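Objective 1.3, modelling of assemblies. Example input:
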Amino acid sequence: MRAFVVAVFAFLYLPIALVVLFSFNAGHHASEFTGFSVQWYGKALANPFLVEALKNSLFIATTSALLAALCGTAAALGLARVGARTRAVFDALLGAAIVVPGVVIGISTLVALVQLFGVVNPFVASLWPNDQPPRLALGYGSIIAAHGLFSMALVAMIVGTRLGSLDRNLVEASSDLYATPLTTFRSIVLPQIMPAVIAGFLLAFTFSFDDFIVAFFVAGAQTTLPIYVFASIRRGVTPEINAIATIVLVASVLLVVLAQWQLRQRKPSH
Amino acid sequence: MTAVPDIEFRGVTKRYGSVIAVSGIDLAIPPSAFVALLGPSGCGKTTCLRMIGGFEQPSEGAVFIRGHDMAGTPPYRRPVNMVFQQYALFPHLDVEDNVAYGLRQARPRLSSREISRKTGEALAMVRLAGYGRRKIHELSGGQQQRVALARALVNKPAVLLLDEPLAALDKKLRTDMQIELQNLQREIGITFVLVTHDQEEALSMSDFVCVMNGGRIVQLGQPSEIYDEPADLFVADFVGKTNLLSGKVVGLSGKLVDVALADGTVIAARKRTPLAQGEAVSVSLRPESLSLGAPGSGRLDGLVRNRIFLGSTAEYAIEVQGIGTLLAKADHLVGGGNLFKPGEPVAVGFTAGTPLAFPENNGTNQRENKNVEIVS
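Predicted structure (tokens):
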């Protein structure tokens, strides 16, 4: 039984361990380890295309996560006040949004955006006074929108759970102590749900930063880090890719751990 | 009475869908009273408290605070403060910020010096001076309870509402807090409205007890009245321990009735409501109104089944043929009283007129609530 468990974990984590190991390879090939070196990290960070992709990814992840945290929290707060039946429908829809495969989100977002552009662009052009009307196109905006859409559901779920465990008495106590609804929200509700909002933000960031599938569909001419990695693999796997993968891996694990830690912080007490 | 009542209910009914929680209540609570709303769970007492606090709106009728109709006034504009059952202290704030919370909402703003002075006074009042910087979760249950009190009282409300405030404390602490609450109420002189299902708590702490059942006020009076002169069978049974014996009215003579018990014994009982000849009644006999003696010397003869020794007194379960088990409480330190042993035959006696006779099956009587007002 123990051997079986070891085998399962080895199967799961050995490839990842190898990726990390080969990022420290002194040689040029991802298949034979010839000595320890951190040169590939230096090379990776000196690669202007890669740095550009990294910057794009960071920008998109930050923006979409902020968007998701804001809109997701607002959605959760709104859903806390609706009737049980409406609530059940929206909860199911949120859950569905999270389990829909990336490919489906990617292609449906692409189709939706292209349709939208097809309507909006001619309309704007017809109103525009000169020959250079602004045109909506795939790019930063579309990736942020697609990532934000998915993460919003994630944040709404996490914050909604936290709101559900929030002691109603605290809100009543605040109201009893002369606080207006706005003050109650600011001084009582927000501090209580903040860890969930931050955790939601971090998970949304991680999702966006790691995502290849959705971004691949809607990126247009833009390159995110996962898209860059995918493209460079066609030119052969070098330890440089391993180095990037290791950086992304470490950053993601850190963020997820941070998110979990936030969720455990200051559990609403009763 | 000329003073404007602190709290007044006028024909208040509260419905949740088809469920009636509170039904046509009229009640006036005078200033500086300590009033307990007492009743079993679901009797509407908490709903009444929440309607004073503004967390529920009456479906019919109106609630007045110091003569002002509170219809449409949200909780944050009502001059009352509540101590919640689970205290509802803000877990992310320390003790001082919890207590200062209400003061910080005052407009025009109070100076921070003023706030910290008042907060300090409030904490000293509940004997928590020096605890200001503690976190809530670092405090014991009793301390949290006192923070909740300070947080409410610091605002100098017209009325303090207490929702089963002692339910979460252990017995020893509960007794201490009962005395502390009583002292506080006398010291500050504001009206306290306490909701409780614990009749002992209601009787021991309050000036007036308002017994509720099925959304109505069944009886309102001083604790001794409630205990000695219960309005009906429900109150007699709910407040304190009592023996209820079934019987039939066989004779009427002024305030007294003769009741034939199941075994044929006829006893003289007082009546609270008009009774008819032949009517089925329940007779209430308090355990401490029973006296025990040598067989043949009392009204009923029985056998001691159990004895619970309580120090200066002892409680006995006495089985009487044809009637059932009676609970008796005897003070064996007074008048050379004996301790009876289980299995011993014993006579149970009581003075004529101590038993109270109530119409049977009328615990939830249809009596109209007259405008009940406490005269202090």
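The radius of gyration of chain A is 23 Å.
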